[in-house]
Amino acid sequence: MYKKIWFLLLASLLLLSGCGAPSEFAASQAEVTSVAIKDLTADPTAYTGRIAIKGVVQYVDEKQFVFRLIDEEEYKTCGLNPCGAAGIMTVYTPDSSKPAGKTPSDYSYDAKMPKVEERVTVEGDVVKTDQGYFFEVDRVLKGSELIIVKK
Known about the structure:
8 strands
């Protein structure tokens, strides 16, 4: 009988202390919406809030801090040479050594550029500027490894 009381007391304390509640990190991850590259490039105004884009790296220019992603479905069908331009997205993640080339929001990144044909997930937000829309990157993951993060 005492074992049951101790178990119930311990379980109650854990729940009250927040151990049973989801972490802030898990809650923020639940808010990320996955979007296909072809859908985002077709209508960037349709997406608000934090989104995640999965794709295959088609091209990398480490000196210019640029890489291009091809939509996963398009890659399955056409390989690295896309069937249509809507399946490609350019990602720009400059570091602080490139002050003239910062993003429109003036962010720079700690970056380890991905390699061609690697699958990555890019998380960020669609931002409207005077020149149009762009995708502002928060972070890039290769599997569970964080390879690029906004400073």
